[in-house]
Amino acid sequence: MSKSHLTAFAAVVLAAPMFICGGVSAKKCVQNTKSVVVEQPFFEEIRDIDEEFKLKAAEELELAQEAASEQVLEQEPEIPASVEWEWYDVVKETDVIEEPFYYDGAYALSESERDLIERTVMHEAGWCPDYRLLILTAQCIRNGCERFDQTPHETFDNFGYAAMSYANPRSKKAVSDVFDKGLKCVDDDIYCYYNSTMVASAWHETQTLSIDIDGNRFFY
After folding, report:
1. Which end of the chain is more exposed for a tag (fewer CB within 10 A), N or C?
2. What residues contact residue 182 under an 8 Å CB cut-off, 6+ apart?
3. Rounded CA gap, 90 and 53, in Å?
């Protein structure tokens, strides 16, 4: 996909999930329901982002389509060249959270739910050298399920996640750490995030920032 195509596409999906690890580091979501006040349906609000951004995105997309000389096919992202294979596919001793927080217990998953979440974490952050990004992604998924009282499959659909066709050992470990062991990287009930080095998102910035790791911003 050309740079112009990427720019246009990114602007269109301002509130949608985003790969956490882009260049050097290759994308979501909980707060106590009682303390959350929403003036309109949450998922409609996510999609009702900044008309100015939408207009600009449409203009850039039209220019990109006119300039395209061949069909662009959607495919799974390539692993960034800067990431060594040993980090990408093998659990390392550094794949731990040194000062963890904890949920009040485990979150039971069916076999299909676990598989879906593992492949989602893989797609979102599976090749990130920083293990915190895998844990934070899994936290957002668990928090999304708990906040909106929905299944992992419903959270996957409602938040527009994408999943790889498989999951590496590091992604599986992150899901187990969060859902089975109840581990947290931050104590905030984060439920959404985006990579600010790849796209601008006015909606995300209206939420409360919990942590920023190399431009990967997590909110609650």
Report:
1. N
2. 102, 103, 104, 105, 106, 107
3. 40
Backbone angles phi, psi at 111, to 5 degrees: -60, -40
Backbone dihedral region of 215: left (phi > 0), alpha (psi from -120 to 50 degrees) or beta?
left
pTM: 0.66
What lies within 8 Å, CB to CB, of 54 at 6+ separation is 12
Q: Which two tokens stand for residue 55?
A: 């207009």
At 192, give phi and psi (nearest 5°).
-150, 155
How do 209-213 and 192-195 pair as beta strands? unpaired
Q: pLDDT of the chain along its 220 residues, tens only? A: 444 443 443 443 434 454 565 433 333 333 333 334 444 555 555 555 555 556 666 676 676 666 654 444 445 555 555 555 555 678 888 899 999 999 999 999 999 999 999 999 999 999 899 999 999 999 999 999 999 999 999 999 999 899 999 999 999 999 999 999 999 999 999 999 999 999 999 999 999 999 999 999 999 9
- Rounding to the nearest 10 degrees, give the CA dihedral for residues 130, 133, 138, 144: 170
Contact 216, 193 (CB under 8 A): yes
- Name residue, tokens 């800067």: 82
